[in-house]
Amino acid sequence: MLPLHGIGGRGDLPVPLWLAIYSAGAAVAVSFFALAAFWSRPRFERAVGRPLQVLTRIVDHPATRVVLKLAGLAALALLLGAAWLGNPEPSLNPAPTWLYVWIWVGIIPLSLLCGPIWRLANPLRTIAGLVRRTSYRPLPHGIAYWPAVAGLAGFLWLELVYPEGSDPRVVAIFTTTYAVLNVAAGIVYGPSWFAIGDSFEVYAETLGRLSPLGRGASGRLELRNPLAGLATMPQQPGIVGLLCLLLGSTAFDGISRWSVWTRLTGALGHIPVYTSGLIAAVAIVTALFLLAARATGAAQIRPAAIGPAGLPGAFAHSLVPIAIGYAVAHYFSFAMFQGQEGWLLASDPFGRGWDLLGTSGTRIDYAFLGTGLIAGVQIGAIVLGHVLGVVSAHDRAAELFRRRQLRRAQYPMLAAMVAFTAGGIALVTAS
Questions:
Q1: Rounded to whole angstroms, how far apart are CA atoms 193 and 127?
Q2: Keywords of this protein's UniProt record, alphabetized (predicted)?
């Protein structure tokens, strides 16, 4: 079985763990009190970016769209071809690495740098669009983002719970099933389905809110403050569940590699115990965030638009940088090392003895990153993610609450942020 996690020196911190936790928690708390003292009016809610007309013309040109669509289709075909037809041994087949590293982890830098580009290259959108219809069924009432949450939960269960999740044929079955279901839904409900039902597109779009590139009200690409883009995230039911699922699953993955967890669960059934652990971790994170968000309602709210998801939905965008920080900290060494395997194995994707890229016999270079650098990236990503989360939450609170109540209203959210910070550092650095 391919070792999808635990690559790299997670436990080798350049400073004591207790000092890292205290310092990170203090950084989050200090940023909160500084904001409360000097930031009393919202700055991102109605911010306008600078239009990028030339880039908009390039991206929206039909030739660019065709190239992106063909690239997406080629990537899907290669993934399915390698998964179904390639070597059945996970360590000799690139498909698991392509799915779990190049796609799942690669969505993060791709979305942060390029904004809403996944939607343009999404091969499932392209395939569904080949079936032309004069009309589509309306999306079921109240469906919101829950289909994307369900699909993401299935993927994370496969990655973190199922013992054979890295088996190429398992990857093939999952990818094919996922593609067929979403293409079928796209044919029935039209392109609007992918914005709420395709887990990977919803995930990419959510992360892309923190990109300096985004679409303005006129539809043109804009260069903007990333936090201003984050403030435009729709407040729809299901988005809180999606982000808490991301945070909770990352937390569980860290817990499941603790020696204490291994000792306590070693004699029990793997799938039931790990499934229960995953559900429990997500439930704890969700409960903590919901409690903190709803506790802010003790203060009088200004007459402002609160979406269908209520106060938790209003503050859900603050979880995006936290989720990115957790993901970077958790997957950094994994992506840097295991990501090389995807390139090396691509030289013979179908197990035919080829050497298309001339990499036969080359091994992963584990020496180009030191443990100190890895630990620094992990801690830095978590702290930066939480500080940006505090800034985003404070700006939204400045929109919702009166000035004299602004600080008191945010104490519950501050407590949740500090807890997430300390827990995140402890999890990614535990051996």
A1: 13
A2: Membrane, Transmembrane, Transmembrane helix
